[in-house]
Design brief:
It is a single chain. With 142 residues, the protein is mostly beta strands. It has two domains: 12-68, no CATH class; 71-138, Dna Ligase, domain 1 (2-Layer Sandwich), CATH 3.30.1490. It has helices at residues 43-50, 90-101; strands at 12-19, 22-29, 34-41, 59-62, 70-80, 107-108, 118-120, 127-138. It has a four-stranded antiparallel β-sheet with strand order 1-2-3-4. Strands 5, 6, 7 and 8 form a four-stranded antiparallel β-sheet that branches. Strand 7 and strand 8 form a beta hairpin. The radius of gyration is 21 Å and the shape is elongated. The N and C termini lie close together (8 Å).
């Protein structure tokens, strides 16, 4: 939910990943199923922050802020491939076709490497591709 000053309130989850090359802090929106914020800082600056030193340099990245307080929905999506599709080119054709047949408001995955990504209907001989589609809708929270 947006506040009067333009800030976005959302229920989040935090991860702090400490590695040899520094520290990465990730903020994840629980309802949107997305990483929203990444903060990277050196190991030395992380230790200094733990010692209560403020305003330390860091790299920040905000990803999909418009989705932070929304609810993520996803489902399987199957669509018919053109007759020109065959076992050699079906993956390429599915990637090119999925955007034009995806329902409005949904975003398709362009991954067609799963074992069940393609099937042929035995009665009609038509080939179908299967992927996942997703969207983010306004949360029902007040």
């Amino acid at each position: 939910m947006k506040t009067k000053n333009g800030a976005i309130d959302f229920e989040g989850q935090i991860s702090i990943i400490v590695g040899n090359d520094g520290v990465e802090i990730q903020i994840h929106s629980k309802s949107a199923s997305l990483r929203i914020i990444e903060i990277k800082l050196s190991s030395n600056d992380f230790v200094r922050a733990l010692g209560r030193l403020g305003y330390l340099p860091c790299e920040c990245r905000i990803m999909s802020p418009d989705r932070a307080n929304k609810t993520h929905e996803h489902k399987s999506f199957e669509f018919e491939l053109p007759e020109s599709a065959n076992w050699r080119n079906q993956k390429e054709i599915a990637i090119k076709t999925v955007d034009s047949v995806c329902p409005e408001g949904w975003e398709p995955d362009h991954y067609f490497g799963a074992q069940d990504s393609f099937r042929t209907d035995q009665k009609t001989g038509k080939t179908y591709a299967k992927t996942h589609i997703r969207r983010w809708i306004e949360s029902k929270q007040s």
